[in-house]
Amino acid sequence: MSPIAIEADSPPQSRTFMRRFAGAPLPWIMPVIVVIGIFYLYPVIDVFRLSFTNATLIGENQQYTFGSIANALSSPQLPDILWATLIFVGGSVIGQQILGLAVAVTVIRGEKRGLFGTTILRTTALVAWVVPGIAGGIIWQMLFSEAPYGALNSILRLMHMPTVAWLSDPAMAPWSTLISNIWRGTAFSMVVMYAALKSIDPSLYEAAEVDGATASQQFFFVTLPQLRAAILVNMILITIQTVNTFDAIITLTGGGPGRATEVISLYVFNIVFRNYDLSGGSVLSVLMLIISLGLAFVYASFLPKEEEQ
Amino acid sequence: MKSATVSALALSTILFSASAIFAQELATKDRIGTADAAKTLVVRLTNDSPNNSDPAIAEGYQKLFVDFIKKHPDWKMQMQFMSSDIGTEQAKMLEQAKAGNAPDCAAVDSFVLSQFMVNKVLADFTPYFSKEEVDDLFPFIRSGITDKDQTIRAWWWDTDLRVLYRNKSIVADAPQTWDDLKKAAIASTKEGMEGVLFNGGRWEGTTFDWLANYWALGGKLVDDSGKPVFGEGENKEKFLKALNYFKDLVDSGAAPKRVTTIANYDDMNAAAAAATTALFIGGNWQYAQLKSTLDEEEFKNWTFSPIPGPTADQKSTGTGGWTIASFSKDKEKIEMCANLARDVYMGPANALQQQLPTRKSLFDKYEVFSTEANKTFANALVDGQARPGVPIYPEISNQIQIMMGDVLSGTKKPEEALDAAFSAAMEAYKRL
After folding, report:
1. Taking the complete model, does pTM exceed 0.90, yes or no?
2. Where are the transmembrane segments (chain A) (predicted)?
């Protein structure tokens, strides 16, 4: 039944009520505002509030103080945690971006030439994306296992190459966690890049060909500039996703050896659920929010303006 | 019209019968007892329940629960199950208990019981257990469940302990001392083994397994008030000695460097099954797992002995286990929860899962505990030591896990790592 029909069927009083709010959006979006407010905004506000307290999971006397902020930010562990996070997030952004673009370009080219297997390639990449983080962690744990029967080291042994201390060497472990995260996130980048590549006007390539541009010149002077917005949006999304990732790391290394792979999200988890320190965890959650927002604004400032588009 | 009336009657009869049958079903995935029972007990359990992944154990528990509820026909139990991330589950439950939303009856890990006690969220179990039952408990169990005012706050129904497993065909004699273990492990590497395996990754098992060595020296983690003391005075010396012992095992090649990645007892089972190790430190429950994993001939080679100490006379082993406690304020629910602990868990569940009972007399009552292996485990409980029941323990454990990774991987020197761990634990203690 159309809205007009509903109005026609409604009694006059109800019709007056609906007309009164016809031009006012607020009553119509109020249910959404209430739901978002209760389930999204309230927890965020509560995290901000808790960061100004000394709240713990045990202890009764909650008081408002700046002490928790000072304690959390002056913690001697924080620089190491931030460094591990920087490697993990920075490496993931670069790795996922490059590999996602490479897979997307391969798939597009394959489709254009009608090659067999492009759909299989696209689907295979997507499988990694739908695997839950914890399952992904377990898969990579088996691959990186340094036991005599560990998968990757067994392959290296077959090839008469030296084995690698994938997870037990504090210098190597961050790179191993990075590889597993890039594997997982590449498909997402591929989807974004694939959609962006599809939307590039083919006449641009035709004009480039007429001008005698080589394939690499077409890529650097047509494809990449056209993908600028998609690349920046993708960077924002990968950054936010990776800053919040901890499920794959907790399964793969638990943050170890020592603190070698303890990124900020895992650190917050440990502070709240091992140390029962709600206020400390809240301060660091706010810090995570600031880092994510800050980086998002930096990326967004490079987005092409409307007139450029 | 007539046929429509007949159809409607038939349909309503079918629907009524279906709901009646459903109401009479005593066990569903999330309910034990009839759906129309007047009283409800919300119960949250681990896999020590009908939710166990082993079908035989799950079925055994289901039978125990159904038999129990038949004795209490007015009641139904609404079942909730925890994930395997126990630390997080227990922390969440503590938060719920403080907010008054915890289940009526739940499994509480013995090593975090004190956190619940400090917050005064546990009901009083004292009236529901006899003096004989309480006196029959092992001393460390009794003190673990008793509050400062001598009130019983939970019922600790099973315990476990750590031992040294060895393949007799490679390591014939049980190592008695730290030196013996190092020599045996190095000798095993000459026969193509990895050496001795133990937990060294970021999880509770790393701290718990290593603590046996520190306790064997007489070291203490906290003082009587619950303040960390492991980084001061004599305790610091003992701590460094036990830490250097593990470092030496790795540096000498008696243990592989990969121990810093072991964060699961299953890794040790896997190594035993793959015949790549002849020695590992594990839990008593792994004996049954080895039996089911290895073929009969191979299993005959495996045995266990107490964890070696610095000398043959200085021995210790970590003991853990689970309790049942009530968060309810309703006396009927508290009593029902205590009944569940007594009738299902205190004995029958121990026998079902072959998990060590916490009462001496139960070792004689159930035949499964009369095996040579279980008798040896029971005797080893004499050296058993529980983790300190203080609120700061989880953070001390977290710091020891970090320290162990740093030391065994060579990132930090033992004393430097210990000082960092102690300083972080003290900082956390001040905030609690």
Report:
1. no
2. 21-42, 81-108, 120-143, 283-302
